[in-house]
Amino acid sequence: MAGRCCIHKVIDLFSGAGGLSLGAARAGFSVCGAVELDSHAMKTHRRNFPNTDHLETDVSKLTGQSLRDSFKLNGDELAGIIGGPPCQGFSNIGRNDKNDKRNLLFKDFFRIVAEARPKFFLAENVPGILNEKNDELREEALDHVRKHYDVLEPMTIIAKEYGAPTLRKRVFFVGYSRDHANPLTTDLFEPPENVEKITVGEALRGLPTKIRDEWQSEEQGWRFARAHGQGYFASRLHNNVPPGMGDPVAIKKIEAERASGSLGTFHSKQIVRRYDELEPGTSDPISRSYRLTLSGFCPTLRAGTGADKGSYQAVRPIHPTEARVITPREAARLQGFPDWFRFAPSKWHSFRQIGNSVSPILAERILTVILNVL
User: Fold this and answer.
1) Of 332, 333, 325, which Cα lies nearest the Cα of 288?
2) Phi and psi, residue 23, nearest 5°
3) Which band of pLDDT confidence, cut at 50, 70 and 90, is reported for residue 5?
4) What residues act catalytically?
5) In total, how many domains does the chain have?
6) Which residues of 233-274 form beta strands (DSSP E)?
């Protein structure tokens, strides 16, 4: 793997498609390495982060030293380790199974931090991680890092309060080394004053509303996409591309206001009729799909299950004015991704990658705070 020289290098464990990575890059970090086991998510990350070194492996098999060796990092070169360990076993929506083997990966994240000794760490997970029945696992995980890091109290954060158009609520664990950073306190992570609240209608503005069912291939999904407004959210739709980031095809096409992912979904006439009659802000009684409201915020987008759990498709929201579920590009906008960010060619993998991602709008805000104290 080719190393890169930058003053603030971070590694993204369980990187997925790269929501945290994008937030880190926009905050001013160099994402020198990404670790992900899912081959489809890793392909997406490679496409959008061509200058990042990638390691497609099981995080539980790594040590802090093998991680450093893989990305050729010595001494104080590693500024931070960030990541979102699998959350399925902690989710209040899912089975919330404390015996889910994937829960142990949460402890592996902190074990690797303790072994690799970066200047800071940031871990993201679902609110269920704070449930009483997970106390023992959570404490065992944090015990790995308490000797060498000041660990903040877990912060429960709602993305819409930071300028993303989603109600997604997540818990963040942050720790830092006093030898390498000025003191951090949880109040520094409070939402910015006068933050621009982005509604569903504002987030989707500039994307096509009329989507043809037959738009099924990746090539057919390239459609008109325009960024409106002058605020924080709008500025990140087509601009603020970190150096060396982005798929060249997507970057070129965004100059002509074309973005990928406007893929159609075949609905029967009966479903179209039901969706057409459904009031915004209510759920379809059969599909349980929620109809978005133009003036509201998007509920948490769900990822569905992987192949090991049956490959079940997540319930997708219904467009606020059209009788159809949203497209991958619309889902990406609602999660806070820029239009130049390319996901998997298929709808199933695209929605899975978007649903598993941290909003890059939120990630940038949080990681900017951390960069400022290093």
Assistant:
1) 325
2) -60, -40
3) very low
4) 87
5) 2
6) 258-259
